[in-house]
Structure formats: structure tokens, C-alpha cells
Design brief:
Number of helices: 18
Strand content: 5-15%
Radius of gyration: 22 Å
CATH class of one domain: Alpha Beta
């Protein structure tokens, strides 16, 4: 069996997530904030975001009786991190944590605004492409002296992505093999003799078969623009991977040196998404929905295929579904066999925890950081939300068994895939273009605009700085 390898590649990961986005993790919805003790978040806009607590001027020593107030920032707008923060405060009565959630779709810009205004959170989540800028600007500190980080250092390439100039600056809370899965109702598949798709041709034939049964094949939750390209993400990723086979970060260098254009990477993917839409494979009823609304629509039978990240099995719509009418299954979004004879399966990072270099209460901030990455705490966090851990052995939902068996095949190479050497925040500008496809936008005009906007973006930064950094790491 061919030995699986991890290698760093460079390409645009629209969500991170992504995980990508994550992509955007579990949510990229309305900006909101709350105290960690609250049961949810409000709907205040990001521009109005201010601390909602009035913490006392606390002592530096977290062991004193005075109350220390820390600020924690993420894109978890549904309060996903509140139980973790509540548990921390229960163990540390003299430390209060204010939880603030920013819009995941514009997280980089909103976080950058906070930093430049001097409002630097004590502990916060960042998206991997932001890491280099955070280090260069002195906003975060190394964490490799924190004992729990040793677990990540065993992860090889993942740890390398969290490092700058030999120091580790971040800890990956979760990620996953196969950034996008295609979810389906196993009962529907069994009743109609359908099977999971193993390649792009089978994927498209599956859509035709579902349409022939009189049902809508595909849900695209373009209301969360970070997921608008999920239905054909591997087409774009495979193009970037093919470019990158020749050398680590080759895609980034080609873009920064203007040897290729963004449209070269995105073109085939955009045309395929437009084909799905024009062929009637995409439910128009779900296009304005966020991912969780779309998930409920999927569970209710509004459409039969739901491309999304690994958090779906743990979502409320799935957990509360009627097992007599709905049972979730999943297969990996198909990828191509590349010129090196392998299929490349992405191992993505999602939520990445960093520690401020400018905390007013550094000991308390470090204590919170140590707590978040502690094995037992992190395992509970992952399992509550149905997430896949990278550095800990959290229990994985059985729905992924089929996919993980697929990833274990001898022609599969596992690839750590983020555009880790490009300027932070540039990727967000492309998500809206993906969503625009489902408004009937002209694809050629869309791709031309993408190239123009990318050129405009690059004119605002020193591309040589990034080129030199890439060359130094090759």
C-alpha cells in the first residue's frame, strides 16, 4: 500500500474551511456577542460590538481574589463555545470571560479592525491564512512553551502550518479529512436503488437519477456565502493541487508572480456550478438559506444531496430528525486522479486558537488558553458538536466510516491544504462570486471581475514580502 504523506500545498480555500472554512466552522451568521454565562447570542451588528460586561480593574495574579475579565473572540455566533467558557469559569471563580462572536463571512476584516483599534482579544480563534499577518504585526505570542501544545507537535505538517520561523503560534482545535462531504438520506437511497458516488461522473449521474425520480438533487446554502462553492469545491482544489505537485507553495508563487490568474483556478468550478444550476439540479428554495436552515430543508426532503462540512451529523436538524423517515449517510465529495496517479484528500484545519501578545492579564489569558487545549476539555468540546479532532482522539460519528474507508485506499494521498502563505483576508472576496452564480450571473463576466478584483487587492500589499517568505520555506 502506498504510504500516505502529508505535504503543504497552496491554493484558495474558500470556507475554511476551510474548514473551510471551514471553513467557517459551525456558523458564519449574524455578528453577535454575549457573556459566556448566557444561553445564546443577541443580534447586535459587528459595528456596534462592544464589551457587554463591566469587569473590575483586576489584579495580574489569577490566583488573587479580584476578578479578572478576559475577552474571547470567535465566529461561533450560535453560542457553540459558551459551555466551554462556562466550565472554565466554574473552575476559576476569579476569572470572567466575555464571549464575542463576529460574522464568519467577514471575520478577517472585522478582526483586523479590532486589532488596529487596539481592542485585541486575550484569546481568540483565527483562520489559518491570517496567522502570518498576526505574527508579523506582533498581535499574538508563541505558544510552544505551553505543555499541551506538545500533542500538536506530534502531528508533523499540521504543526508546521501553525509555526512561523520555528516557533508555534497556534493550536488547531479541529479539522478533518475530506473538507466537504455529500450527505444523503440512506432510506431514500435504499428505496430507490441509489449508491454513493465515487467520482465526478457518478456524482453528476446521481443528480440526473434523482431528478428523473421527480425530486430535487442538490441543496446549496448560498445564504452562507462561505459554502456557496461546496457542491463543486474539489474541481477547483484539484486544479490547485495539480499546479502544486511540482513544488510546495507553487500555486501561491504562480499567483503572486502573475503567472496564472484566479480565473484559471476557479473557471472550471464556476462553470460546473452554473451547469448544476441551469440544469435544475439546485433547489431554488434553499439558495437564500444559511447552512443550518438548509440542513433542516434537507432533512425534510426538500432536496436529496447536501454538500457540507463535518459538523452536519451533530447538528440540531439531524439530531432531532425522525429515524423512520430520515437516516443520514455521507460520502466524500469526489476528487480527480491527478497526473501523479493519486487522488488527493484534503486534511483541513478549522478553528485555530491563538493567544494575545498584549493581554492586560497575561497569566489569566494563558490559563484560559491552557484550559481550551487540554485533552479532556477539547474532546468534550469536539464530541458535543460532532467535530473531528486533529490532535486528540475524539469519538468520530459512524456516518463517516464509509468516507474514511475511502480515504484509506492505496491511491489516496492526504494533503494539508490551506493557502498559508498568502495575505490574510483576501479569500473572502471570492465567496460572494460563488453565491452570484446562483443568481444567474454570466460566468465569463464573473471570472473577469474576479481577476480585476484580485489585481486590485494585490496592489495594496507588498507581494515580494510573501514571495520571499515562500522561497525561504521551500
Amino acid at each position: 500500500m502506498k504510504r500516505k504523506i502529508f505535504k503543504l500545498i497552496a491554493f484558495f480555500l474558500a470556507c475554511l474551511m476551510i474548514l473551510s472554512l471551514a471553513a467557517c466552522g459551525n456558523d458564519a451568521g449574524t455578528p453577535s456577542q454575549s457573556t459566556a454565562q448566557s444561553s445564546g447570542t443577541d443580534d447586535s451588528s459587528a459595528s456596534d460590538s462592544q464589551d457587554v460586561t463591566e469587569g473590575s480593574d483586576a489584579a495580574e495574579d489569577p490566583g488573587s481574589d479580584e476578578v479578572v475579565t478576559l475577552n474571547y473572540v470567535s465566529w461561533m455566533t450560535k453560542g457553540e463555545d459558551i459551555p466551554l467558557l462556562d466550565d472554565f469559569m466554574a473552575e476559576n471563580a476569579n476569572i470572567r470571560v466575555v464571549n464575542q462572536s463576529l460574522d464568519g463571512a467577514d471575520y478577517a476584516n472585522l478582526l483586523n479592525t479590532m486589532m488596529l483599534s487596539g481592542t485585541i482579544p486575550d484569546v481568540f480563534l483565527c483562520q489559518q491564512p491570517l496567522l502570518g499577518d498576526l505574527v508579523r504585526n506582533g498581535f499574538i505570542q508563541p505558544v510552544d512553551d505551553i505543555p499541551g501544545v506538545a500533542k500538536q507537535q506530534e502531528a508533523g505538517a499540521i504543526n508546521d502550518l501553525m509555526s512561523v520561523d520555528g516557533r508555534v503560534y497556534a493550536y488547531v482545535l479541529n479539522g478533518g479529512k475530506g473538507v466537504v462531504f455529500v450527505y444523503y438520506n440512506t432510506l431514500y437511497f435504499e428505496a430507490n436503488g441509489l449508491s454513493p458516488a465515487g467520482n465526478q461522473a457518478e456524482y453528476e449521474q446521481l443528480m440526473r437519477d434523482i431528478a428523473a425520480l421527480g425530486d430535487v438533487p442538490l441543496i446549496v446554502s448560498a445564504g452562507d456565502i462561505w459554502s456557496a462553492d461546496y457542491a463543486a469545491m474539489t474541481i477547483y482544489q484539484d486544479m490547485a493541487l495539480e499546479i502544486d505537485i511540482a513544488g510546495i507553495n507553487s500555486t501561491e508563487l504562480a499567483l503572486l508572480r502573475n503567472e496564472i490568474k484566479v480565473s484559471d483556478l476557479r473557471g472550471d468550478q464556476f462553470r460546473k456550478l452554473a451547469q448544476f444550476y441551469n440544469d435544475g439540479f439546485v433547489s431554488p428554495d434553499a439558495l437564500a438559506m444559511g447552512w443550518e436552515q438548509a440542513c433542516q430543508f434537507f432533512v425534510d426532503g426538500g432536496a436529496q444531496l447536501f454538500p457540507m462540512g463535518n459538523w452536519v451529523p451533530g447538528s440540531t436538524p439531524v439530531q432531532e430528525s425522525d429515524p423512520t423517515t430520515f437516516q443520514i449517510g455521507a460520502f466524500p465529495l469526489p476528487s480527480a486522479t491527478l497526473s501523479d496517479g493519486t487522488r488527493h484528500i484534503l486534511v483541513g484545519t478549522d478553528r485555530i486558537a491563538v493567544l494575545s501578545a498584549h493581554s492586560d492579564h497575561p497569566e489569566a489569558a494563558r490559563k484560559l488558553y491552557e484550559y481550551i487545549i487540554r485533552d479532556d476539555v477539547l474532546i468534550g468540546y469536539l464530541e458535543r458538536q460532532g467535530l473531528i479532532g486533529i490532535n486528540v482522539e475524539a469519538r468520530v460519528d459512524p456516518v463517516f466510516e464509509y468516507s474514511f474507508n475511502n480515504f484509506a485506499q492505496p491511491d489516496v494521498t492526504l494533503v494539508t491544504s490551506v493557502l498559508n502563505m498568502m495575505p490574510g483576508g483576501f479569500g473572502e472576496m471570492f465567496w460572494q462570486y460563488c453565491a452570484d452564480i446562483f443568481t444567474g450571473a454570466n460566468i465569463d463576466e464573473l471570472l473577469s471581475r474576479i481577476d480585476d478584483d484580485f489585481d486590485a487587492f494585490m496592489s495594496t500589499i507588498d507581494s515580494d514580502e510573501y514571495i520571499n517568505a515562500i522561497e525561504a520555506n521551500r
